[in-house]
Amino acid sequence: MRTGATFGVARDRVLVGLADRDGRLAYELAAGVLRRQAALDRALDLSRADPRLHDILRLGTYQLTALARVPAYAAVSTSVALARETAGDAAARYVNRTLRHLTHDQEAQKGETHSHPAWLVARWRARFGAAEAARLVAWNDTRPPLTLQAARWDQATLATALRAAGCGVEDAPFGAGLRVYKEGTAPRSLRAPELPGFAAGAFIVQDAAHALVCRFASPGPGALLYDACAAPGGKAVLLAAAGARVVAGDGRRERLARLTETLARTGVAARVAAADLGAAPFAATTFDAVLVDAPCTATGTMARHPDARWRITPDTITRAAARQRRLLDAAAVLVRPGGTLTYATCSLEPEENGDQVNAFLERHTEFRRAPVPGAVPPILVTAAGDFESLPQRDGVDGAFAARLARQR
Prior knowledge:
Blueprint: H1 7-14, H2 20-35, H3 37-44, H4 54-66, H5 72-87, H6 89-104, H7 118-128, H8 130-140, E1 146-150, H9 155-164, E2 168-171, E3 178-181, E4 203-205, H10 208-217, E5 224-227, H11 234-241, E6 245-250, H12 256-266, E7 271-274, E8 287-293, H13 308-311, H14 314-334, E9 335-345, H15 354-363, E10 367-369, E11 387-389, H16 391-394, E12 399-406
Helix pairs in contact: 2-4, 3-4, 4-5, 4-6, 5-6, 7-8, 10-11
């Protein structure tokens, strides 16, 4: 990840082939360090350490402070061995001394505990207030729940099969899917391919917030819908289940295999297109509905993507908003008169959400907001009529959507 890969790509590349137990520990260590990186750095004072040792020290400190099942001697000795391999004997002695000091220094556990860039926390405090911002960063620093949406099986059948396999099951917030947790004889890792029904296409893994975005889009039975940024395919599956005739496109060719696999496994008869929305892949006014689930800063899903907080800068938000503007303008052309354009992100930032939509409506006076009454619970609808979920308020991923209708 430090060389440019996203956490998800790095995880899938590195953990393949590891024994299950080793893979679980490796994932826990990497995700835990990313979630707590700022707090770990405060405890370590890395300004005096060789940069090659930073992640080794973080890994050791995370094991000492957060993983009760890893003995202290094992955390220290493994880190020392890594340091020696990376930077020699002097580095190994430095790591040994630093970590052994931490095992006796309880003050390292005190003080400010959130692990986010200071500028981002200040931004959220200005928007949400100090208390809500604190709840948001606390949510991001915890492991997210596993949420499933029924696909080939109905939700009751899926719940029964999961319970029979020893999993704990409960309804996700707002009735949008099932949350699964370890209980009794459940698989220890709760990896989707190990759960009953995966190979049969019984479910997809998708947070409640994103399932609710599909409900908010409400394309209508039989509508010809273009899912313009479709990979990995979860929204296409749910929109097809709601009766839409889906064309699933994505301009990121490296993600098309995952999109195709998701649709095939769940039995969705959707056309897949390697299509860059900005390159006008279809004729104007082709579709009854278009969904632009736009690439964004993902500040609403930082619990699931612990590396995102370290990738984002104020300039990242500006660049994302500029790209989203271009995608929206391209998508508008594809919507027939009387059709709908749904714009969605998993960001919490106004520049990518409400401000983006307001600017679009100023440029495209043929569109207006057109939320469907009752499509989602009222608490999730803003004063302007857009969908918005907030992790600290709703207990789900942060997401945004605006449903816009083109006038006849």
